[in-house]
Amino acid sequence: MKFGIVVFPGSNCDRDMQDSLQNDLNKEVVMLWHKDKDLSMFTTSDCIILPGGFSFGDYLRCGAIARFSPMMQSVIDFANKGGKVLGVCNGFQVLCESGLLPGALLSNGHQQFVCKNVFIKNNDGKALKIPVAHGDGRYFAEEQILDELESNQQVVFRYCDAFGSVTEIANPNGAIRNIAGICNKERNVFGMMPHPERATTPALGNLDGKEVFRIFGMN
Known about the structure:
This protein has 219 residues and is α/β, with parallel strands linked by helices. The protein has five helices and eleven strands. The radius of gyration is 16 Å and the shape is globular. It starts with a strand and ends with a helix.
């Protein structure tokens, strides 16, 4: 599997993602500038990643300007044809703004930037320790959409404590139903607020991010 990482003005996690994929997961990586359009080198068995950061300074709303970049038009077409797309943090916000994922990411409930390790869990997995760093990570959607996400098993990760219990106190931003990551109905577009690329090397004392990539089918 080949990975393309889209770089927007204000991206600051693109090199972290590149280092994680190349050096820790031994993947082929291509960096993609937001003003370009060409994704002809990628097939639907490959993956495009939208990294974290503050694209276009988070003006208007987080991800609202990046959504209209030339490369994003190609990413939307790529996803609609079945190609895998992963958005992390700001990338998750861009996916929601582009309509590839439902809902929105709002300002954290406590109105403060949060930067720390948290725990998340998949429906049938153990608690994974993954860092977060965001000011606008509170996932929100209307009740009907939330119910659809639940019934279709599109909620991929929820915030939990170290023992895997999904509790309000473990929620770092007030996200509705403790949602940390979701996917689309077709299960080829994924978005999450925590940063798995910051937890894939022994140098940082944490390899739990590798399990996140495995769950997404990207390891």
